[in-house]
Amino acid sequence: MSTPAAPRRALSARSLLDAALSAYLPLLLAVLVVAFPLVWMALTSIKPLPEIITRTPTLLPLDPTWENYATAAERLPFGRVFANSVLVTAVGSVIKVALAVCTAYGLVFVRFPGRNLIFAGLLVTLMVPPQVALLPNYTLITSLGGADTYWGIVLPGLGTAFGTFLLRQHFRTIPPSLVEAAELDGAGHWRRLTRVVLPVSAPTVATVGLITIVSEWNDYLWPLVIISRPEMMTLPVGLTLLSNVDNRAAAYGQLMAGSVAVIVPVLIVFIALQRHVIAGLTQGAVKD
């Protein structure tokens, strides 16, 4: 009886090893593909120029220095540009999430003719590339005097069809009895939204907020088109200005330093909200 037991144990160990390799090896490879360029960028930002322009590059800096960050701050009004990005991202994200929440609530809990048609229109906008609206938005904003202004950067992107779609799908999973009970207690739409719907939708709202923050912070094309004054530029556009000041290979270190400054705030926000992301993306996947 003891002889057949050993092959079964060996087979079980081999199965576990195969399962671990099949499950974790592709994940590890994907993480390496995504993380390695970021690690290389961060390490390059603290390398002196001779270690960047060399035929024998090394991953770790041999003589680390913060000179690239200091040079980038001298050539670019970094404090003002960083403040511009924070202001545009904060204001734009708050308004976009608020509009998405209110729109999704109206599409689910307010009965009015044509709401399904409106939702279909939102889905259609997801299929249209944002570059299509670039010229009409530029014509409209400049005619209103919005060039080189904060509201000119924020206004065209206030609608978020994806955020509205995600919130609507989640709101449809909320038991109607919760909202009906609040209605019987005399609560209006605003109170139902803030006291009943939002508390049970925090993960989804956090997910929409994270996606919106990343999108606003990394937006490059529209600020590049509507802004021409350096003191009004956001960080992604400021990097272009930095490369234009010195477009030689000597600017690689400063560009890497500026790129790190762009990515780090987004990583901090993601780390703060990551525990809500998976729950928020899956809450609206199935309707009971």
Automatic annotation (TrEMBL):
Species name: Pseudonocardia kongjuensis
Protein name in the entry: Carbohydrate ABC transporter permease
Top-level taxon of origin: Bacteria
Coiled coil: none
InterPro entries to which the protein is assigned, alphabetical: MetI-like, MetI-like_sf
Membrane topology of this protein: Multi-pass membrane protein
Family: Belongs to the binding-protein-dependent transport system permease family.
Primary location: membrane
Signal peptide interval: none
TM helices/strands, residue ranges: 21-43, 86-110, 117-138, 150-167, 196-214, 251-273
Domain ABC transmembrane type-1: residue ranges: 82-273
This protein's record includes keyword Cell membrane: yes
Subcellular localization: Cell membrane
Keywords for this protein: Cell membrane, Membrane, Transmembrane, Transmembrane helix, Transport
